Amino acid sequence: MVCHRRALDHRNCSVAHHRRTWVNGVPQNSIAVAADDVAVGRCPDSSLRQLTAADGTRPFLIDHRGDTPPILLRRYEQVSEQLAGLGPTARCAQPTAAALIGFDNFKLRPPYHFVVPRGINRHRVGHFVHRTLYLPPIDCETAHGLPVTSPTRTLIDLAVTCTPKLLTAALDGALRDRLTTEEFLHRRIVELRSRGRYGIPKLLAVIEGVEASRGGHSWLERHYLELIATAGLPAPTTQATLGKRDGRLIRVDCRFPGTRLVVELLGYRYHRTELQMRHDAERINRLQLDGFMVVQFTYSQVVQEPEHVVAQSLEALTMSI
Predict the structure, then answer these.
(1) What is the Cα–Cα distance from 102 to 31, expressed in whole angstroms?
(2) Domains of the chain, start order
């Protein structure tokens, strides 16, 4: 039996599908459960039980022996019952959503996590009911017939409680399985961090660590280079070395050859220490004293105001020739 489900949860893109298969009733690369959680093996056809989701769909067959339902089925039914009790606006969230979506290293097991709109005062003994002021349709999906937060929103929400190691595995797996894209993830980060989401600095640190381990340009640098190329502007040299400060080499993000223009991308972090700000100021001052024109763009500007970034880059290029 084969199940198809939406894999890319962003707008204005071609919808891709991720094929999942079931062997002996066990979903492969789907809901994560321990190997001994599901009873499998040869059994008569009467032991096949078809699981019907709340929306009437039949996500998968579960094969078990005897009259006792396997753990996977019991847990699915538990989640479904808890959702019904919380009302139509409730969704699975955080590790529960991650397991249903199929993130690496997440298993469907209690305590379960749900999210409801702020103002709904319902509780579930032994489980977690989170409340939110902002959960737009773009952050909502279904997985195996159950309402869940989208893969991208789930990654952002997991950053509140997950360890960096677990978050890194979830991020890598989500990108590998095309459950989200780097561009869409950054757009949602910028949108949600303006609303004071906890955990986003940890997620950005994980993204930086993953990029560093891969080598090459960061997503922010690649995105800026794409903006410049699309606008028809000359390509800058990246990670160029320009002089020294206090005996240390000054490396800049982008230097446009044949001009005095240097573009600095301020990175994902939006809280800097006083020492970091002092070093940045000394570095920029040294570049300007050496005759360079330095233009800086923030992470949010590159993501949310690409036209402004391109226009200022063009103006700076004209002035620095």
Answers:
(1) 5
(2) 2-214 (no CATH), 228-320 (3.40.960.10)
Tens of pLDDT, residues 98-116: 999 999 999 999 999 999 9
Which residue type does 247 have? Answer: G
Task: Report the phi/psi class of residue 94: left, alpha or beta, with left for phi > 0 and alpha for psi in -120 to 50.
Answer: left
User: Per 3-state DSSP, what percentage of the chain is helix, strand, and coil (rounded to 5)?
Assistant: 40, 20, 40
- Are 205 and 189 spatial neighbours (Cβ–Cβ below 8 Å)? no
On the 0-12 / 13-18 / 19+ scale of CB atoms within 10 A, 12 is exposed
State both tokens at 89. Answer: 């606006």
- Residues of the chain falling short of pLDDT 70: 1-69, 194-197, 211-216, 247, 269-272
- Characterize the bridge pairing of strands 146-149 and 237-245: unpaired
Q: Which residues pair with 50 in a beta bridge?
A: 61
CB 18 within 8 A of CB 177: yes
Cut 0.70: pTM above it? no
Residues 93, 150 contacting (CB under 8 angstroms) = no
